[in-house]
Amino acid sequence: MGRPRRFIQAAALASICSSLIPATGFAQTDASTIEMKILQWMETERLISEESTEWESEKAVIEDMISLMETDKASLQEKIDSANELSSAADEERAAIVEEKDKLTATADAYVSIISDAEAKTRELIPMLPPPFTEEIKPLISRLPEDSSTTKLSLSQRTQNVVGILSQVDKFNSGVTYLSEIKKVSDDQSLEVHTLYFGLAAAYFVDTQGVTAGYGTPSPEGWEWTTDTDLAPDIQKLLAIYQQTSQAEFIELPVSIY
């Protein structure tokens, strides 16, 4: 194996320097000094070479680290960009939810006004219902709030209640209803009577003896009744037709529409 290039150069340099120095005692001292300098230079060169080699190794490691950091940086940037996109999407979704909530709140507020108005009109309708029928739907009527603005009932409960009452009223108003009831026919007399209600338009009654009769119509204060004994025979015929114990025929009876 050949000697290192730097070592050969140093040896050659030392040989040349020795040949140029005169062979005297003083010259020998200078030659020793020069040789020492050369050896120091060679050591310095060796250290520089080692440092250079170490630097090359460290440089490769540093370059690898820089490359890895660049890769990590790119990956992190992708994650940041993705997070920003998700954040933007989340913000848009949140804004959409808030907007939908505002719409629902506005709709609910509008519906509160509607159901409150419906409850008020339903309460106004109650006096116009016949007392026997009112008694039948009393559980529903009792659930109508006295003050719609302070009630603790939910909107669904209030809606079901109003719909329940109006459904029963509509059913009653759509047909002819027969009721046996006690009716006050004068200031000092009450009788058991047969009454035919033609929805909420009019009603006709006759007592069990077929003597006392009359008719009634609804008003905001309740049903208003008029006693007219002359109507007893016709109302008896009307009752017989309803009960299908007599042939249908035209019967003229008084009526007043509220």
TrEMBL record:
Signal peptide: 1-27
Family matches, as Pfam families: DUF3450 (PF11932)
Coiled-coil region(s): 66-103
Keyword terms: Coiled coil, Signal
Domain of life of the native organism: Bacteria
Name of the protein this chain belongs to: DUF3450 family protein
